[in-house]
Amino acid sequence: IPEAATPSATLREEYESLAEEVRRHRALYYNEDAPIISDAEYDALFRRLEEFEALHPELVSNDSPTQEVGGEATAAFAPVTHLSRMYSLEDVFSIDELNAWITRAEASIAGIGNLPPVRWLTELKIDGLAINLLYRRGELVRAATRGDGRTGEDVTHNVFTIKDIPRRLAGTNHPEEVEIRGEVYIPTKAFNEFNEALIADGKAPLANPRNAAAGSLRQKDPAETAKRPLSMFVHGVGVREGIPARSQSETYELLKSWGLPTSPYYEVFDSYEKVLEFIETYSEKRHSLIHEIDGIVIKADDFATQRALGHTSRVPRWAVAFKYPPEEVHTKLLDIAVNV
Ligand code: NAD
């Protein structure tokens, strides 16, 4: 038996304790909406686990946090099985890592053949929480959080209180069933005003818009959710049979025509250089937008390409999230040479 197949007890213990630490912070973040470390610290911890697993693949178990979508459906809400799975996103933390990711993706696409030249839909990574809306014949019948990607929490009645989200879709060309995925968030201005009102009332302010959005959506009493200034932007579709769209961008236009809130900030580029310019632009503008962002999401626009690339157990292979560096170490991103 090769040495790698029999990891020492110490190595296994080290691995288990690292995985457990990631799970603990995930539970605080997703289940309690109350993280105790920053996202950058969490990302660094997660990266350590990934690197550990790359060095010791024999230790990786199916329930490792790297193999699963983070979060679970807590007992506080009725469980909902999504019609099609929800995923997380692969993160990259530098332009070098993004270059490598794009090079790999473009090589896979070229290798598959018969696919149109890749176009990259580039959009903001909204710092909120994922929602899955099920519309039947144009009527909103169910809304669920992502949970572990297979099963989420039923928050339908809370979602009914969000003004951005139509109970009935506009237009007529609706399929029998469609799952709309998006991000529920609190706009920065509304968040600040909400906090000022709390402070004036002698109450404790909310920590940040992301956790406030998650906590607000996951209230037991919809009347409480209704008091919170929640908004939503769509960023995907799950089950979509019968949708007359061949790409992510065509889908956004269709959803917009149905009265769903689409982000004004997305663009489709046929050159990667333009993607980099978009990243640079929003790195400067990121604090003057209507909502907080924690990065930029880059997706192959074409659905045939998305289908051909597929998914891992945790993330799609046709999309990537570029995370901006934490503020204190922020440097001009494009100083790094681009060679793809
Ligand atoms: P993620 O948030 O990095 O990416 C996936 C999610 O991004 C999707 O599920 C979707 O909801 C969201 N998203 C926002 N804009 C999007 C867009 N335009 N297109 C597609 N999706 C978009 O991954 P994750 O697994 O949900 O969470 C991991 C992240 O959460 C970490 O990187 C960390 O920042 C944070 N986190 C923090 C802690 C902590 O303790 N501070 C713990 C767990 C997770």
From TrEMBL:
Give the binding site residues for NAD(+). Answer: D39, A40, E41, Y42, D43, S88, L89, E123, R146, E183, K299, K323
This protein is called: DNA ligase
Q: What family is this?
A: Belongs to the NAD-dependent DNA ligase family. LigA subfamily.
Domain of life, per the record? Bacteria
Whole-protein residues included: 7 to 346 of 763
Active site feature: K125 (n6-amp-lysine intermediate)
Quote the function comment for this protein: DNA ligase that catalyzes the formation of phosphodiester linkages between 5'-phosphoryl and 3'-hydroxyl groups in double-stranded DNA using NAD as a coenzyme and as the energy source for the reaction. It is essential for DNA replication and repair of damaged DNA.
